[in-house]
Amino acid sequence: MRIPGLSDGALVTDPDVLAGYSRDRDPWSPAGTPSALVRAAGRDDVVAVMNWAAAHRVPLVPRGAGSGLAGAANAIDGCVVLSLERMRAIREIDDADLVAVVEPGVVNADLKRAAAATGLFYAPDPGSFEFCTIGGNVATNAGGLCCVKYGVTRDAVLGLEVVLADGRVLRTGGRTVKDVAGLDLTRLFVGSEGMLGVVTEVTLRLLPARPAPGTLVATFDDLVCAGDAVSRVVASGRPSMCELMDDVTIAAVEAFRPMGLDPSARALLLIQSDAGPGACDLECEQFSAACEKAGATFVMATQDRAEGELLTAARRMAVSALEAQGGWVLDDVGVPLSRMADLVAACGAVGERHGVQVATFGHAGDGNMHPTIVFDQDDPGARDRARAAFDAIVDAALQLGGTITGEHGVGLMKRRHLVRQVGEVHLDVQRAVKEALDPLGILNPGKSLG
Ligand SMILES: Cc1cc2nc3c(=O)[nH]c(=O)nc-3n(C[C@H](O)[C@H](O)[C@H](O)COP(=O)(O)OP(=O)(O)OC[C@H]3O[C@@H](n4cnc5c(N)ncnc54)[C@H](O)[C@@H]3O)c2cc1C
Fold first, then answer.
1. Which one of 63, 145, 148, 319 would you pick to mutate in the ligand 1 pocket, going by the greatest count of ligand atoms within 8 A of its CB?
2. Which of 25, 104, 262, 396 fits a disulfide with 84 by CB distance 3.0 to 4.6 angstroms?
3. Is 407 near ligand 1, meaning CB less than 6 Å away?
C-alpha cells in the first residue's frame, strides 16, 4: 500500500500494531480489522490520507488516545485508522487573550499543566484526563468532574481547524470572546465523533487560575437520599465538583487500590467548592446543610488540598476499578437535576429486575450518571442480562426526560437508541449535514447515525 504525500514513517501496516489501534475502551461494541494505520505528524499528512481515502472510497476512522467508551473510534473492516496522537504541540498559551492553541493529540492533562505554569486554568477534566486527547475531547464534547461549574468541552472551544472529507481545510471561530459571524460551525464539529471532518488544531478558552478547593464528603445509608442531596446541593451554591459513588463502586475502588473510603456507606457524595478564601467555607457549610437535610449519616469538610486530591483520585479510579472486576458494561445517561433521586432508584430497580449488579456513580451535579453493570463472564446468561439491564437504564433515563448519553457519545454503543431520543426529523437533518460534508460517506461510517 502507498499513500502519496505522507511523511516518512506515518504509514503502518504491521497487523500486530494495527490490532492495538482497532478499538477503544468500550468492551462491548464490535471492531473490524483495519487495512492500515496512519500516524499523522501534521496537517499535511491528514490532507494526504483524506485525499487518498476519497479517491479510493476507503473509510477513515479518526482516533485520539482510544479512551472512548462508546466504540466511536472502533475500526471498520478495511478502513484506515488515522491516529492524531503524534500531533501534540501546544502552539501557544496566550495570557493576554486567555487562549491556548493546540494540536489535537495534546493530552488533556499536559494542557492543564502548561496553562497552570502560566497562572491559567484549562477547565474540562474528564476522568481520563491523564491520557485522553484534546481532539478526542472535542469530537466527543467530553465532560468531566468540574463541568458542574465550568461547563463541558463545547464551552471551552473558541475555534477549530478541520480537514474536510474532500481534503479542503476549514477554519472556524477564532480567539475573540464574542463572534456571531455566520452559522456556528465550531459547535457543529464539537461532538461530531469524527463523522464530519478531522480536527487538526483547536483554539481553547483559558481561565485565571482558580483558588484551591475545599472538599466535603457526605455518606448516606440510602442511595435515593444521596440523589435527593445532589438536587439540594446544586440549588444551594455553585459546587466545582459533585460526584456520587454507590457501595458497589466504593467496594470496587477499595479492592483495586485501598483509598480509605467507608465500605459500610450505601452511597458517598464528593463535593468541592473553589469559591475562594472565606466564601469556600461558607459554601461548604451550605452543602453540608443540604446533605444533612437529605439524610446524610456523616458529613466531613476539609480544606486540606492533599486530602481533597486523594478523594478525587479515588473517584477517578471508578472506571478502571470496575473494569478490573471482570465482565462490565458502562452506561452514560443524563436526567434533569430534579430527577436524580428517581434515576438512582431506577438503577437499583433495574439491577433487581434483571438479576445483575449495577454500580451507580458519576457526575451527579450534572445529572449525568454512569450506571455500570458488573457481571460474571463465565455465566453464559449473564451477558444477555447485562445487555437487557443496560437498555433498561437507557429507557429509564428517557422516561425521566433525560438523554441516552451525557458525555461519552453515541458511537456504536447507543446508535440504535438515538432515534428514540431525537426523533426522525432530527435524524434526517443530521443525515443531511453528514451528506453535505461527507457525500462519499468515508468519515467514520456506521457510527452514531448509522
Ligand atoms: C477511565 C476513564 C474515564 C473517563 N472519564 C470520562 C469523563 O469523565 N468524561 C467524559 O466525557 N469521558 C470520559 N471518558 C471517555 C473518554 O476518555 C472521552 O470520550 C475522551 O474525550 C476520548 O478522547 P480520546 O482522545 O481517547 O478519543 P478517542 O477515543 O480516540 O476517539 C473518540 C471519538 O473522537 C473521534 N476523534 C478523535 N480525535 C479526533 C480528531 N482529531 N478529529 C476528529 N475526530 C476525532 C474518534 O473518531 C471517535 O469518534 C473516560 C474514559 C476512561 C477510560
1. 63
2. 104
3. yes
Q: What is the pTM of this model?
A: 0.96
pLDDT tens, residue order, the chain (450 aa): 899 999 999 999 999 999 999 999 999 999 999 999 999 999 999 999 999 999 999 999 999 999 999 999 999 999 999 999 999 999 999 999 999 999 999 999 999 999 999 999 999 999 999 999 999 999 999 999 999 999 999 999 999 999 999 999 999 999 998 999 999 999 999 999 999 999 999 999 999 999 999 999 999 999 999 999 999 999 999 999 999 999 999 999 999 999 989 999 999 999 999 999 999 999 999 999 999 999 999 999 999 999 999 999 999 999 999 999 889 999 999 999 999 989 999 999 999 999 999 999 999 999 999 999 999 888 889 999 999 999 999 999 999 999 999 999 999 999 999 999 999 999 999 999 999 999 999 999 999 885
Could you name the CATH architecture of 11-83? 2-Layer Sandwich (3.30)
For the CA of 129, the closest atom of ligand 1 is: 17
**Pocket perturbation via mutation, ligand 1, pick of 45, 67, 363 by most ligand atoms within 8 A of CB:** 67
Q: Separation of 199 CA from ligand 1 center, angstroms? A: 13
Q: Where in the chain is the domain with CATH 3.40.462.10?
A: 214-399
Of the candidate CATH numbers 3.60.10.10, 3.40.462.10, 3.40.50.970, 2.60.40.10, the domain formed by 214-399 belongs to 3.40.462.10
Cβ of 322 less than 6 Å from ligand 1: no
Residues of the chain with CATH 3.30.43.10: 11-83
Pocket test for ligand 1, best of 79, 107, 140 (most atoms within 8 A of CB): 140
CA distance linking residue 226 with residue 231, whole number of Å: 9
Q: Residue 145 CA: which ligand 1 atom is closest?
A: 8
> Distance, CA 67 to ligand 1 centroid (Å)?
5
Q: Report the alpha-carbon distance of residue 412 to residue 60 in Å, rounded.
A: 16
Q: Does domain 90-208 have CATH number 3.20.20.150?
A: no
